[in-house]
């Protein structure tokens, strides 16, 4: 492709609203342009990278036995109401009415659509297992779109769905897709981890997220420093063995703590460490109120709380609701003297508390020297807190460390949730009707593109891995006005194309400095510069990511280039 004949609008300055490198560089290098908040157009080079990522995904999906199809983005409300997700999905689901006032959703995901198709077309165990996938635009009404392609309102996703006659069959397909996802992200050149995850609004259990390691990631990965264990921080179980202090119980005492609201403020005021106080938070779990107690230096994990109660909704109670139930506002809550109307549940660490402080359920007052069993009763103890760095790894090997990650893929064992709700069944070999078992597997294709840039860039611009680069070679003529340079440039352009090498030819009548700066910014793996030795047939060859630079005669060029490409394949 000749650069003079394509849309490649590079920018010298960093756009004011671009906070992270991928957003900045994709805009500056002319790969994308914002159309609306959280909505982007892919310009020609951006589309080429997108297509290469898609092709890697397609090859691995096909290898895993999945069949590609295409489903509508516009989905009727009736399908979503069959599963109950029309009411439960939340405000991220984009809803609209047609001219006849019929309700639709713009597809945030496609479980309902694919289940309805398979329900109507598959009726025998002989046609199972079946795995189907698509690459399609998804829509989610993000409250705060940000970070360019990492959190948008419109994005490109590969979603796959598998249908089975048993959970054992689901396990087999899950393992294939898990392997395929690893292959996809390795082929894209990414440094990633597969981590244990929460299924969220998708439903189901036994899920893994594929996280690209990056400081701009919005998710925290808890991983072992000596094993392969890794989990989203929300899902990492705590296996700490607590030791009870060998102190004598002291007399319970109520003390005034005026204007001390936070755990740190109370601890400082009373002169003890955070771990020597109890934190009490009132949660509304579906329609039930629960007082949750943790140690002062621990944080309540609302995902664990949701999973413990198998709840649809978990949220903090309002201060008004809390006062009506307990008689005190935030900052003064505690487990002593709580009404029977409120269930009290605590993290395991609370069981080992000795002479700790806690709210007195009276504004501006706390108890000191509180002890479980003697002074208050806990209905249930459970693992309710977030894991912390330094905690034992849940697999028993090493200790936990944290890293930030960008979620680029997620695999789920959905089980029978959607199939039961929508009546997707099959006849077994005895002619008996059974509910299908399902799996779901998603890759954020446009998000993967951004994640690649987050890991592959330097101070000059993007450094695309060869497998996903928009072109293999960037061919530049220093001075297109000079006949010898223009003629050699034109000749090499044809030679490279005929050799099956993808080439972007900068034939513009621009200054050399502009061409070099744009080339570094765009980040194509190999650069060939036609300059002052063009008449002799010599060019300059440069590897973008390593900076390696050599002079070559045109007769050696294809051989040398193929060697580099084979070594970096």
TrEMBL record:
<keyword id="KW-0067">ATP-binding</keyword>
<keyword id="KW-0547">Nucleotide-binding</keyword>
<dbReference type="Pfam" id="PF00587">
    <property type="entry name" value="tRNA-synt_2b"/>
</dbReference>
<dbReference type="GO" id="GO:0005829">
    <property type="term" value="C:cytosol"/>
</dbReference>
<comment type="subunit">
    <text>Homodimer.</text>
</comment>
<dbReference type="InterPro" id="IPR044140">
    <property type="entry name" value="ProRS_anticodon_short"/>
</dbReference>
<dbReference type="InterPro" id="IPR004500">
    <property type="entry name" value="Pro-tRNA-synth_IIa_bac-type"/>
</dbReference>
<comment type="similarity">
    <text>Belongs to the class-II aminoacyl-tRNA synthetase family. ProS type 1 subfamily.</text>
</comment>
<dbReference type="InterPro" id="IPR036621">
    <property type="entry name" value="Anticodon-bd_dom_sf"/>
</dbReference>
<dbReference type="InterPro" id="IPR045864">
    <property type="entry name" value="aa-tRNA-synth_II/BPL/LPL"/>
</dbReference>
<dbReference type="InterPro" id="IPR004154">
    <property type="entry name" value="Anticodon-bd"/>
</dbReference>
<feature type="domain" description="Aminoacyl-transfer RNA synthetases class-II family profile">
    <location>
        <begin position="33"/>
        <end position="465"/>
    </location>
</feature>
<keyword id="KW-0030">Aminoacyl-tRNA synthetase</keyword>
<dbReference type="InterPro" id="IPR002314">
    <property type="entry name" value="aa-tRNA-synt_IIb"/>
</dbReference>
<dbReference type="GO" id="GO:0004827">
    <property type="term" value="F:proline-tRNA ligase activity"/>
</dbReference>
<keyword id="KW-0648">Protein biosynthesis</keyword>
<dbReference type="InterPro" id="IPR023717">
    <property type="entry name" value="Pro-tRNA-Synthase_IIa_type1"/>
</dbReference>
<keyword id="KW-0963">Cytoplasm</keyword>
<dbReference type="GO" id="GO:0002161">
    <property type="term" value="F:aminoacyl-tRNA deacylase activity"/>
</dbReference>
<comment type="function">
    <text>Catalyzes the attachment of proline to tRNA(Pro) in a two-step reaction: proline is first activated by ATP to form Pro-AMP and then transferred to the acceptor end of tRNA(Pro). As ProRS can inadvertently accommodate and process non-cognate amino acids such as alanine and cysteine, to avoid such errors it has two additional distinct editing activities against alanine. One activity is designated as 'pretransfer' editing and involves the tRNA(Pro)-independent hydrolysis of activated Ala-AMP.</text>
</comment>
<protein>
    <recommendedName>
        <fullName>Proline--tRNA ligase</fullName>
        <ecNumber>6.1.1.15</ecNumber>
    </recommendedName>
</protein>
<keyword id="KW-0436">Ligase</keyword>
<dbReference type="GO" id="GO:0016740">
    <property type="term" value="F:transferase activity"/>
</dbReference>
<dbReference type="InterPro" id="IPR002316">
    <property type="entry name" value="Pro-tRNA-ligase_IIa"/>
</dbReference>
<dbReference type="InterPro" id="IPR006195">
    <property type="entry name" value="aa-tRNA-synth_II"/>
</dbReference>
<dbReference type="GO" id="GO:0005524">
    <property type="term" value="F:ATP binding"/>
</dbReference>
<dbReference type="GO" id="GO:0140096">
    <property type="term" value="F:catalytic activity, acting on a protein"/>
</dbReference>
<dbReference type="InterPro" id="IPR033730">
    <property type="entry name" value="ProRS_core_prok"/>
</dbReference>
<dbReference type="Pfam" id="PF04073">
    <property type="entry name" value="tRNA_edit"/>
</dbReference>
<dbReference type="GO" id="GO:0006433">
    <property type="term" value="P:prolyl-tRNA aminoacylation"/>
</dbReference>
<dbReference type="Pfam" id="PF03129">
    <property type="entry name" value="HGTP_anticodon"/>
</dbReference>
<dbReference type="InterPro" id="IPR050062">
    <property type="entry name" value="Pro-tRNA_synthetase"/>
</dbReference>
<dbReference type="InterPro" id="IPR007214">
    <property type="entry name" value="YbaK/aa-tRNA-synth-assoc-dom"/>
</dbReference>
<dbReference type="InterPro" id="IPR036754">
    <property type="entry name" value="YbaK/aa-tRNA-synt-asso_dom_sf"/>
</dbReference>
């Amino acid at each position: 492709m000749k650069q003079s004949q394509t849309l490649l609008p590079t920018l010298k300055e960093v756009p004011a609203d671009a906070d992270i490198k991928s957003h900045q560089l994709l805009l500056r290098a002319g790969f994308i342009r914002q159309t609306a908040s959280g909505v982007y157009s892919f310009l020609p080079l951006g589309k080429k990278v997108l297509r290469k990522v898609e092709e890697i995904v397609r090859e691995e999906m096909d290898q895993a036995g999945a069949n590609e199809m295409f489903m509508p983005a516009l989905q009727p409300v009736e399908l979503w109401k069959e599963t109950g997700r029309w009411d439960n999905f939340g405000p991220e689901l984009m809803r609209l009415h047609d001219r006849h006032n019929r309700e639709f959703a713009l597809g945030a995901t496609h479980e309902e659509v694919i289940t309805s198709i398979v329900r109507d077309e598959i009726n025998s165990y002989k046609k199972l297992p079946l795995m189907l996938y698509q690459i399609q635009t998804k829509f989610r009404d993000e409250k705060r779109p940000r970070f360019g392609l990492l959190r948008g309102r419109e994005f490109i996703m590969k979603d796959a769905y598998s249908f089975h006659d048993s959970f054992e069959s689901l396990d087999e397909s899950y393992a294939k897709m898990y392997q395929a996802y690893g292959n996809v992200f390795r082929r894209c050149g990414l440094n990633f981890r597969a981590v244990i995850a929460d299924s969220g609004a998708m439903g189901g259990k036994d899920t893994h997220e594929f996280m690209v390691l990056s400081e701009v990631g919005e998710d925290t990965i808890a991983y072992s420093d000596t094993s392969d264990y890794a989990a989203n921080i929300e899902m990492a179980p705590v296996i700490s063995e607590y030791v009870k202090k060998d102190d004598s119980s002291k007399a319970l005492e109520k003390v005034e703590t005026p204007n001390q609201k936070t755990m740190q403020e109370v601890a400082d005021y009373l002169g003890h460490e955070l771990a020597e106080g109890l934190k009490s938070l009132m949660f509304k779990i579906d329609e039930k109120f629960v007082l949750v107690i943790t140690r002062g230096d621990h944080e309540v994990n609302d995902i664990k709380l949701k999973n413990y109660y198998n709840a649809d909704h978990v949220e903090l109670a309002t201060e008004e609701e809390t006062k009506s139930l307990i008689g005190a506002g935030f900052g003064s809550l505690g487990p002593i003297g709580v009404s029977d109307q409120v269930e009290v549940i605590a993290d395991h660490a609370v069981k080992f508390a000795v002479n700790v402080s806690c709210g007195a359920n009276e504004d501006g007052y706390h108890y000191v020297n509180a002890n479980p069993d003697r002074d208050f009763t806990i209905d249930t103890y459970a693992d309710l807190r977030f894991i912390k760095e330094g905690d034992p790894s849940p697999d028993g090997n090493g200790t936990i460390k944290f890293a930030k990650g960008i979620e680029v893929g997620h695999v789920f064992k959905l089980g029978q949730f959607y199939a039961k709700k929508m009546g997707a069944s099959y006849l077994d070999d005895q002619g008996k009707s059974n509910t299908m078992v399902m799996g779901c597997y998603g890759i954020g294709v446009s998000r993967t593109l951004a994640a690649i840039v987050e890991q592959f860039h330097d101070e000059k611009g993007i450094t695309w891995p060869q497998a996903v680069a928009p072109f293999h070679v960037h061919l530049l003529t220093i001075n297109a006005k000079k006949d010898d340079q223009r003629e050699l440039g034109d000749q090499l352009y044809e030679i490279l194309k005929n050799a099956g090498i993808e080439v972007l030819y900068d034939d513009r009548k621009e200054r050399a400095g502009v061409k070099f700066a744009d080339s570094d910014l765009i980040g194509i793996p190999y650069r060939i510069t036609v300059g002052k030795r063009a008449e002799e047939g010599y060019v300059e060859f440069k590897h973008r990511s390593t900076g390696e630079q050599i002079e070559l005669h045109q007769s050696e060029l294809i051989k040398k280039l193929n060697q580099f490409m084979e070594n970096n394949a």
